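Supplementary Text 2. Reproducibility record for the structural model of the 319-residue chain.

All settings were left at their defaults, and a single model was retained for analysis rather than an ensemble. We include the record here because the model underlies the residue-level annotations in Supplementary Table 4.
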Amino acid sequence: MSLFFLLVSLEIRREMSTGALASPRLAVAPALAAAGGAVLPVALYLALTWRDPAARQGWAVPLATDIAFSLAVLRLAGRGVPESLAAFMSALAIIDDLIAIAVIAVAFGHDVAPLPLGAVAVLWVALRWLGPRLPDALGWAAILAGFLGLWLLFRASSLHPTLAGVALAFAVPAAQTARLEWSLGWIVALVVLPLFGLANAGVGLGGRGGGSGGWADPVALGILAGLLVGKPIGVFATTQLAIRLGLVRLAPDIRPIHLLGGAGLCGIGFTMSLFIGDLAFADPALLAQAKRAVFAGSALAALGGLATLALARSRQDQA
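Retained model, structure tokens:
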């Protein structure tokens, strides 16, 4: 998954340089929406799991949005979806992933060793300084060696080694980021995500079985509530409140029903939520509950978002 995080972080860097996050004015609306879409799911999850200390460990599972899947489902909605909504959703999902990465670094790093972490900083500065000054072939060799070194040092520091991908994304010379992102896109799509999916494919969707608990158990309820209620309401209500207070303005072609459909798609947690679940739960039974709820919640969020956007298109056609 370090390669997946590297790809996501390269996308974040691109958006911060030339895309929807390139200026504070453009970033305010998706940033507020992402914050609302992170806080409310966590609050709902904790409210439903508060009496169970083991279940509370999964509080971060429903806060993440899967960039690739949410935008892919948005494209399935076809005509009638404003291009500006796709840009807004892309920026929102990227900021959402930044929040998830920060949570992974802070919440799931225990007894951090300062010496290896200091070595991470030294290696990162060296890569940042050397990269633009090396010939092309040596530059790519430095990227590969740097990635391996960062991975080992993060692991030694007790922070999750997937953060090596995040660190490397912001150390790679600007001239090499586009080519690296293009190459990683194929590797992640054809190798990393299928393998990750296969690793999680053994989870049944039945109500009970194998001691893994049912849909009424706190973990499953908390995740479903977070993805299907907390995410869409958090994103939609925060954005609407910010608009009414005059803090942000959306593109004129994004009507409230479009925003509601996009907010529903933010409940597609999938890859990032499953990954956080793996980090959060040591108990296999609780992990099985979490995975089952993430699969079901993400599927229902996709269907709900598509239905809302289809309704928006129908109203537009009638008008």
